[in-house]
Specification:
Blueprint: E1 4-8, H1 12-31, H2 38-61, H3 75-83, H4 97-123, H5 139-171, H6 176-182, E2 184-188, H7 198-220, H8 236-239, H9 241-246, H10 261-267, H11 286-295, H12 304-312, H13 325-330, H14 375-382
Antiparallel strand pairs: 1-2
Helix pairs in contact: 1-2, 1-7, 2-4, 2-7, 4-5, 10-11
The protein binds heme C (2 copies).
The site of one heme C (HEC) has 21 residues, from α11.
Length: 386
C-alpha cells in the first residue's frame, strides 16, 4: 500500500464551477418539463453556458489540477482505468482519465446544447436575437432535435461520471466526493498541493460572479432584445381600441393571428349568425375590424400558434382554433373534465389558463397558468401523466 497524505487539489473556484454547473444543469432538466417555466429554464441554461465557456478559460489560467494541460486524455489510460475499475489502483491526483473525458465532453456538449437552446428560443418561440429564424420552415423542429440529442448525451456522460465517482469514493475509498466539497484529496507523499495565486482567485471569482449575473440578468431583463418577446409586439387596445373593445364584449378577444384569412372570412361573413349569435349591435365597426383581422391573420405571423394553425388548416377552413390539430396536440395532456371546471368553462376561454391572452399578439409560455386547478393536478398536466 502506497503511503499517502491529504493535499489541496481543487481550489474554491474550481469547486464552485463544478457545483454551479451541476445545479444549473439539473435545473434546466426539471424546468424543461414545465411549459410555463421557460424563464427558469433559459436562466439556468444561460448560467450553465457561461460557466462552461468560462471553464475553458479557467482551464488555461486556473491552478495546476484545473488546467487542461494536467488532464489525462490518453485513450490507453482511459481503457486502463475502466479495465482495472474493480481492482486496486494507483491514485489520480487531478482528473482521472474518465473525469478528464467527462469534463471535456460536458463542456463541448453543454456549450452546443446551450447554443441550440438560444437559437430555438428564436426559431420556435420567436424571441430574442434569433427571432428571425422563425420564418424558416422546419428549422425549429431540427433545432429541437439537436437540443434534445445534446441534453441526452450530457445526461449519459453525467450519469457515468456520477456512478464512477460514487464507485471510486466507496469502493476504492478515495473519498473523491469529499474532495469536491473540501478541496482536499489523498495523494502520494511526494506530490504537493496547489496554492492558488491572488490573481487566480480574483479572476476565478470574477468568472463566477459573471455567470451569476447572467442568470439573474435573464430573469430581470427577460424583455431585452437578446431573449425578449419578438420585436413587433402590438397591444390591441392601443393599436385598434374599437376592435379590442367590441370583439371582447362576449368572450376574450380573439387576436387575428389565431386563424387563417380564409377561416376568418367564414367566421365573420355573416354577423347575424356568428356561432348562432347576432353581433351586429355589439360590433358597429365590423367592416373596419374585418379589414384589420384579414390583414393580420395567421399567415402574416411567425408565432408558434400561427405556424401550427396554418400548417394544420391546409386546404381546410377551420372556424375554431380549438379544432386545429396543433391546438389539440398542444393541449392533449389536459383532461376533458378540466374544460368543464366552473372557472374555465370552455376550451375557447383561453384567458382562463393563459394570462394576458388577447392583450397583445404574443402568447408567452410564462403566462400559462392553471390557477383554477390544484397544484397536483397542474403538475400532472405539465408532466403529461394521464
Ligand atoms: C354577441 C356576442 C359575440 C360577439 C360580440 C363576438 N362573438 Fe365571437 N363568439 C361568440 C360565441 C357565442 C362564440 C362561440 C363560443 C363557444 O362556443 O365557446 C364565439 C366564437 C368566436 C370564435 C371561435 C373561438 C374558438 O373556439 O376558436 C372566434 C374566432 C370569434 N368568436 C371571434 C370574434 C370576433 C373577431 C369578434 C368581433 C368581430 C367576435 N367574435 C365578437 C359570441 C360573440
Ligand atoms: C385549461 C387551460 C387551458 C385553456 C382553456 C387553454 N390553454 Fe393553451 N395551454 C394550456 C397549457 C397547460 C399549455 C401547456 C401545455 C404543455 O405543457 O405542453 C398550453 C399551451 C398553449 C400553447 C403553446 C404555448 C407555447 O408557446 O408552447 C398555445 C399557443 C396555446 N396554449 C393557445 C391556447 C389558445 C389559443 C386557447 C384558447 C382557444 C387556449 N390555449 C386555451 C392550458 C390551456
Amino acid at each position: 500500500m502506497q503511503e499517502t497524505h491529504q493535499i489541496y487539489v481543487w481550489s474554491k473556484v474550481t469547486r464552485l464551477f463544478h457545483w454551479g454547473l451541476a445545479a444549473s444543469f439539473v435545473t434546466t432538466i426539471i424546468s424543461a418539463e414545465f411549459e410555463n417555466a421557460l424563464l427558469i429554464h433559459i436562466s439556468a441554461g444561460a448560467t450553465m453556458g457561461i460557466l462552461l465557456f468560462l471553464r475553458i478559460i479557467w482551464g488555461f489560467t486556473g491552478p495546476k489540477y484545473s488546467q487542461f494541460a494536467n488532464f489525462d486524455f490518453n485513450l490507453k489510460d482511459l481503457f486502463w482505468y475502466f479495465a482495472n475499475f474493480f481492482k486496486d489502483r494507483r491514485l489520480f491526483v487531478g482528473h482521472n482519465p474518465a473525469a478528464s473525458w467527462a469534463t471535456f465532453l460536458l463542456i463541448v456538449l453543454g456549450i452546443g446544447t446551450t447554443f441550440t437552446g438560444w437559437l430555438l428560443l428564436g426559431a420556435n418561440e420567436v424571441r430574442g436575437l434569433w427571432a428571425f429564424l422563425a420564418q424558416y420552415d422546419n428549422l425549429a423542429s431540427k433545432l429541437l432535435n439537436y437540443h434534445i440529442w445534446g441534453k441526452n448525451a450530457m445526461c449519459i456522460v453525467a450519469a457515468i461520471h456520477v456512478l464512477g465517482a460514487t464507485f471510486e469514493h466507496f469502493w476504492h475509498k478515495t473519498f473523491i466526493i469529499n474532495s469536491m466539497l473540501t478541496g482536499f484529496k489523498k495523494a502520494p507523499l511526494h506530490v504537493k498541493g496547489i496554492e492558488p495565486t491572488k490573481a487566480q482567485n480574483i479572476l476565478g471569482m470574477g468568472f463566477l460572479i459573471l455567470a451569476f449575473i447572467t442568470g439573474v440578468g435573464v430573469w430581470k431583463w427577460s424583455e431585452s432584445p437578446l431573449i425578449g418577446a419578438h420585436p413587433n409586439l402590438v397591444y390591441y387596445h392601443e393599436e385598434f381600441p374599437e376592435y379590442a373593445k367590441e370583439c371582447s364584449s362576449c368572450h376574450v378577444l380573439m387576436p387575428p393571428f389565431v386563424l387563417t384569412k380564409k377561416s376568418w372570412e367564414v367566421v365573420l361573413s355573416d354577423p347575424k349568425n356568428h356561432f348562432f349569435e347576432d353581433i351586429t349591435k355589439k360590433v358597429p365597426n365590423l367592416e373596419k375590424i374585418k379589414e384589420y383581422i384579414f390583414k393580420n391573420s395567421a399567415q402574416t405571423s411567425y408565432s408558434e400558434l400561427s405556424r401550427g394553425v396554418v400548417k394544420s388548416s391546409k386546404n381546410r377552413n377551420v372556424y375554431r382554433v380549438t379544432r386545429t390539430r396543433y391546438w389539440k396536440d398542444v393541449h392533449s395532456a389536459i383532461p376533458r373534465s378540466v374544460f368543464e371546471h366552473p372557472l374555465i368553462k370552455s376550451k375557447s376561454n383561453c384567458d382562463a389558463c393563459h394570462n394576458n391572452f388577447g392583450v397583445d399578439n404574443y402568447i408567452k409560455d410564462e403566462d400559462i397558468s392553471l390557477k383554477a386547478l390544484g397544484v397536483l393536478e397542474s403538475i400532472k398536466i405539465y408532466l403529461k401523466i394521464k
